[in-house]
Amino acid sequence: MDALLAFLTVFTQPELLLLVGLGTFAGVYVGAIPGLSVTMAVSILISFTFSWDVYPAISLMIGIYMGGVYGGSRTAILLNIPGAPSAIATAMDGYPMALRGEAGQAIGVTTVMSFIGGFVGIAALALAAPLVSDFALKFQPRDYMLLAVLGILLVGSLSTGSLVKGIFAGALGIAIGAVGRDPLTFAERFTFDLKLMESGISFIAVMIGMFGVSEALLQLHHVDKKSVRQTIDRIVPSLATVRKHLPLSMQTSTIGVIIGALPGTGGDIAALMAYDHAKRVTKKPSRPFGQGAMEGLVAPETANNAAVGGAFIPMMTLGIPGDAVTAIMIGALFIHGLNPGPMLMIDKPDMFWFIVGALVMANFFMLLFGLTGIKLFTKIVEMPRAVLIPLIMLLSIVGAYAVNNSITDVYWMLGFGVFGYFMRHYGYPLGPVILGVILSRLLDDNWRRAIISEREDLGRFFHGVFTSPLSTVLLVAVVLIFVSQTPLWAHAKARLARKDKA
Description:
Largest sheet: 2 strands, antiparallel
Number of strands: 2
Shape: globular
């Protein structure tokens, strides 16, 4: 009964309801602005809410978190500028839909699917938190390293052209992510003795430059071309559409929960892995992936919102943050005299159920705010290119500067924008570059931890990989994914098909 009362607290107190709604509304629009991250917004909130009671403070933060994860899809679809890293995969099919005049339909689908994914994540948090957190605890540093390698091998599914170009783009991203001071030895890496490179290169600047500025430069070739008029007569997807994509959304939501529950991963990796999964299991997509496939929206959007509930699982049960936002929330709970972890579940179970209730309410508000204002948003795509190109450049500059209030990030963003333009011109994919930058730190740190834990003995390291069932499964998955992307695999499949026909 106490658990039920705690769960219903946010529904029965108008002040908390208002704060969740206000936070979700702000999160949707903060997430839609490139460079303004949810992590930044929640960290700023701590300084404003430390004197509040714990329930109002957490209500506002949860609203911003849930809304912000969804909000990144808006500019990804309309301008090909992901508002957040988790929206990179959404842009791959969302923007082609906008170019076809289907921006309203794309936003409607992403909103409803984000709502479904959010509920799967919340249900996992409420029903299976101890089970999923126990599974997450089984991951050793070598497993996180293999998980990063698995993510990097997704370049084969993210690149629609040459596998070699995709691998090159992913490796380039890893190299960019390694620039700066080594976090372990503090030695300089790829800095060329330049002070401005010692702190590394902001992946937000890389992302905005690669997607935003390169898009503006490409649009310069079509300044006189008329903008595509958007069809917004039906925003809410039909029940038949939802039912058709429900099996895929359940699969990718599960991926989102599991990846979200792994400390240090988050919705960006979950979305990319879900997109790869969709490409592998969808036999007859509505359109080819990368050209406006509906499945290319369903998969990442359900996964990154399901990862929200997943990220709370290790935070609430173990005191370990699932991502950067839950790390900040742990700090907020400490400020309010609470200690996240196993004892919190015993001493203050009402806090656990209050957070579940706040997440449910934030998910409803996300659906409400996500399905409103679409007509106004789609007007952005219908602007003349002579107006739209400066707008994209302005958003890109503001977004890059806002990350660290640094003009250096703006220079990096412009440089990577020009570089991204030439990559696109010569058929090199941009997605793997960003994926490589994001996964570079995860790969590097956990490779070091794995080797140090095995006393720098490669023999012991590989012995651990082959004697651990989890590591073995991940290694087999890495090998299979790599082999399946080679011409040899396609040739073998073709030969088997010919034999079956014979």
